[in-house]
Design goal:
36% of the residues lie in helices and 12% in strands. It is of the alpha/beta class. Strand 12 and strand 13 form a beta hairpin. The longest helix is centred in the last third of the chain and has 22 residues. The protein binds pyridoxal-5'-phosphate. It catalyses: L-kynurenine + H2O = anthranilate + L-alanine + H(+); 3-hydroxy-L-kynurenine + H2O = 3-hydroxyanthranilate + L-alanine + H(+).
Length: 424
């Protein structure tokens, strides 16, 4: 057997991996090979500790916890926003930790969608995550428009979007554009800089959903002049189930009136004057609504430390090595089994996960789980495998593909039904 396809080779890659010690920061229970960090990242010891610390600050300070203690709750959304800014290439005041992905999308569209004259439509894509599309349709309805005002750019092969086709759809009628940074299925990275430049040349504001790129891929939102962005923190950022999301608003829009206002939109010095006229914060903080979900923010205090220690550029470098290695193994080991690699293979467009299609995907995923490899299934025939730089090893990738090969050789998937689980 050629050396490249052996476990010894995977172990050699692990020995050379400068990020390998970060694996010890995480709970890898039950000897799983966890390949689902793009749906729910693993718990780190730091995240766990920061939750305990937050609980202790409540116990100790009660109401005074808002302004006292190491992570005073009143300023936590802003201070974590500052820490997250490096991950998206933003100025410190352009990011705040708040809400959820979908609520933040509602907030930003409420703020930046200003239909006028014949410029009334929203441009999106046909491959985005359903929640984004539901929110955009709901926002149109609130403004009195029907769904025909949502223009969804189609994909030729059902996996990949062509930036030129998106740009061609930026017509006079478009008032706002919302696109993903990385497509949740195929993992394609869209060229955000190019799309932003094209949108602005046509006088259109543009925002991105970073759910699948945050923590895996570096961004330069400020330099690219992106108008706004939003993302969740429970995928690659490892904030835990339902951890609080974040948003970015370009500083040129500071002062924009938040579409969904609440008292936490306030300038923090003014907030407790309790006036009935809002004086909004002069930064991204203005796009918060109500009292922050402090307990669900707490894990991020610890989780983000790991990103600062490792560095997002290094994380991306290792992520690319892991996915390239995975593609190589798939091509070599699985060639007789009908898998189709549907993610872009080139580095510029390849996000943090691999996306395979197979007619028996649902039950192949069940068979993988039985063998302690955790993938995720996307209806009707998709398998996503996310080797995560901070906690997965090259040996994990090797194990994952070997297990998949064994399942295919033995047809071990035949003992399961080819239907999805309630949560997949
Ligand atoms: C994960 C994800 C969401 C989830 O939205 P929540 O409000 O956090 O439930 C939305 N959009 C995209 C593109 C996602 O990947």
């Amino acid at each position: 057997m050629e050396e490249r396809y052996t476990r010894t080779y995977a172990e050699k890659l692990d020995a050379e991996d400068t990020l390998r010690s970060f694996r010890n920061e995480f709970y890898l229970e039950n000897e799983y090979v966890y390949m689902d960090g793009n749906s729910l990242g693993l718990m780190s010891k730091r995240a766990e500790q920061s939750v305990y610390d937050l609980l202790a600050s409540w116990k100790k300070h009660a109401i005074d916890g808002w302004t006292q203690g190491e992570n005073a709750w009143y300023y936590l959304s802003e201070s974590l926003g500052e820490k997250m800014a490096v991950l998206v290439g933003a100025q410190k005041e352009e990011v705040v930790v708040t809400g959820s992905t979908t609520v933040n999308l509602h907030q930003l569209v409420s703020t930046f969608y200003k239909p006028k004259g014949s410029k009334t439509k929203i441009l999106a894509d046909a491959l985005n995550f359903p929640s984004d599309i539901y929110a955009l349709k709901a926002q149109l309805k609130l403004k009195g428009y029907d769904e025909s005002h949502l223009i969804q750019v189609q994909s030729e092969d059902g996996h990949i979007l062509d930036e030129e086709t998106i740009i061609d759809a930026m017509t006079e009628e478009i008032a706002l554009i919302v696109l993903p940074s990385v497509l949740y299925r195929s993992g394609q990275i869209l060229d955000m800089e190019k799309l932003t430049t094209a949108a602005h040349e046509r006088g259109i504001k543009i925002g991105f959903d970073l759910c699948h790129s945050i923590g895996a891929v570096p961004h330069q939102l400020h330099d690219w002049d992106v108008d706004f962005a939003f993302w969740c923190t429970y995928k690659h950022l490892n904030g835990g189930p339902g951890s609080v999301a974040a948003l970015y608003v370009n500083e040129k829009h500071f002062g924009a009136v938040p579409g969904l206002a609440g008292w936490f939109s306030s300038n923090k010095e003014k907030q407790f004057d309790m006036e009935h006229t809002l004086t909004a914060a002069g930064n991204a903080g203005a796009f918060q609504i109500g009292t922050p979900h402090v307990l669900s923010t707490a894990p991020l205090i610890g989780a983000l430390e790991l990103f600062h220690e490792a560095g997002i550029e290094k994380i991306r470098e290792k992520s690319l090595q892991l996915t390239a290695y995975m593609v190589e193994l798939i091509e070599h080991e699985l060639k007789e089994f009908d898998f189709e690699i549907c993610n872009p293979v080139n580095e510029k467009q390849r996000g943090g996960h691999i996306y395979l299609e197979h007619p028996e995907a649902a039950r192949i995923c069940k068979a993988l789980k039985r063998k302690k490899v955790i993938p995720d299934f996307r209806k009707p025939s998709g398998i996503r495998l996310a080797p995560v730089a901070l906690y997965n090893s090259f040996t994990d990738v090797y194990e994952c593909i070997q297990t998949l090969k064994n399942i295919m050789e033995e047809k071990a998937y035949e003992q399961f039904s080819n239907e999805r689980e309630v949560v997949s």
